[in-house]
Amino acid sequence: MKIAVLVNEGPYQHQSADTAWNFCKAAIEAGHEIQRVFFYHDGVNNATKLTEPPQDDRHIVNRWASLNKEHGVDLVVCVAAAMRRGIVEANLAEGFRISGLGQLVESGIQADRVVTFGD
Amino acid sequence: MSEGTVKKFMFVNRKAPYGSVYALESLEVVLITAAFDQDVSLAFLDDGVYQLVKGQDTKAVGMKNFSPTYRALEGYDIEKLYVERESLEARGLTEEQLLVDVQVLSQADMASLMAEQDVVLSF
What we know:
The structure holds two protein chains of two kinds. By secondary structure, chain A is an alpha/beta fold. Helices cover 34% and strands 22% of the residues of chain A. Chain A has helices at residues 16-29, 60-71, 79-84, 102-110, and strands spanning 2-7, 33-39, 75-78, 96-99, 113-117. The two termini of chain A are 25 Å apart. Chain B starts with 7 loop residues before the first strand and ends with a strand. Chains A and B meet through helix 3 and helix 4 of A and helix 1 and strand 5 of B.
């Protein structure tokens, strides 16, 4: 199945980003395709390369990046939501790209399912 | 882009308009989806019904009053606005207090309408 994922919450404060990442990983392992992960609302904070958690904690941003590197998952950050929250090309982590909301709509059209993670 | 594909997108609005950014950013997705010529409908339930209440004045909270956008939706051919009756009643609101024409549906009818959709995005 072709699955699109929408992440609406930032990292660490809520579990959504963890759950979303685990979902993507499990879906890929089960043979599904993650068509795209779209980051919206505070979800855009998953994409800043300034993130530096303590060493004994998981690195949520790098974990997303590994999905892109190892499985070619398209990680898209909404430009309007990102600009509101100070996420720009200069601090965008590797593996992510900034684009418009049209990418979310396109996911809705192309994927068999859109799965939302957030409050 | 899958050319010519039209899917039924429903946007479910469940939160009050100014306590969080969800309502405002939901409207942005709604407008883009309409620009992609998709079949768009909006559902308002729980505190989301407050998004449509007439006479919003945001001066004191220092935020932009975006409620006029709901009246502009018609211009984007977005005419399917559904409000859950139980959510209105629980908050002592009536249809007359809303700033746009809506269809008020029971919880059960809202559920069947959601089941007919291809994509449901809840904000």
